[in-house]
Amino acid sequence: MYHIIFIFIFVFFLLIYLCYKYLSKRKHLNRILDSEKITDNEKKLFDKVDQFLPNAVVTNTDEIEKKFYSAGFYSFKFSHLYMPMKYVSALLGFSLIYIFFNDVYSITTLIIFMFILLVLCVVVPDLILDYRVNSIKNKISNQLPFLLDLLAMCVQTGMTIESSLEYLSSEMKGFDKDLAHMIKRLNSRARVIGLIVALEELYTRFPTNEMRSFVMTLRQSLHYGSSIYDVLNTLASDIRSVRLLLLEEKVGKLAAKMSVPLILFIMIPVVILIAAPGIMRMMSGVY
């Protein structure tokens, strides 16, 4: 009885997901080709599906590819299987739980296990991807002063900004592949759409304060034709100073954070050990 209900719920959500994907693809194609207009009924249906379904279900394939790319998987070709694999694994987990634990646990316990499995299969992979995206952003921000020093040295020798980026993209592969790929992509995009627009795209991918300062510095140099060597050195020094201040702030907060476990696990047991003998003697004298 219950396994039929579970299968029905899964098939219901699967049909909604397929309906959304169909409408999303049609809307995307119409937006590109501009050859067929979306009717009012289809638009209303699309808006309703987009409103009521969660983001974990209706995530677009392009957004998944961008997330994998931002997470460091630059040549990952199976991003379109990410969403189906999550729900297929959840369905297989539901089946295994029902087959092996149906006679052991009650139906309420089985539902709890299935809910936990659903959270693990749907939410945890997205959390892992988000964590990797944030870690790469922080790593790029930490390595940016080193890149600025190298770029300033290349400019000082007489190289242009474009040629300096092309040279550094090949030389930094052994140092940091993510930073080298970022420079290579920036150089490739600069050849196609121009360096200023490529810098704006770079800031869109890495929206940090350090990257904003780097982009604004290069844009200002390209726009006004000012000397960039001293500006890059000053910017690298400022970024290092800000990073050092943030590290000192974290170290300063560490003492306050360590006071809680210090009180719970050291001071309270010591007080108990000191006061326990006297309290025991007083209780023995009373009784």
Topology:
Elements: H1 2-33, H2 40-52, H3 55-58, H4 61-70, H5 82-101, H6 107-122, H7 124-156, H8 161-171, H9 177-193, H10 195-205, H11 209-224, H12 229-286
Helix pairs in contact: 1-2, 5-6, 7-8, 7-12, 8-9, 9-10, 10-11, 11-12
Structure description:
This protein is mostly helical. Helix content is 84%, strand content 0%. It has helices at 2-33, 40-52, 55-58, 61-70, 82-101, 107-122, 124-156, 161-171, 177-193, 195-205, 209-224, 229-286. The model is unreliable at 48-58 (pLDDT under 50). It has twelve helices and no strands.
Rg: 29 Å
Helix-residue proportion: over 70%
**What summary fits the major beta sheet?**
none
Query: SSE string, helix = H, strand = E?
Result: HHHHHHHHHHHH
Global geometry: flat
Number of helices: 12
Mean pLDDT: 76
| Residue share in β-strands | under 5%
Throw out a few tags for this protein:
0% strand, 287 residues, mainly alpha
In short:
With 287 residues, this protein is mainly alpha-helical. It contains twelve helices and no strands.
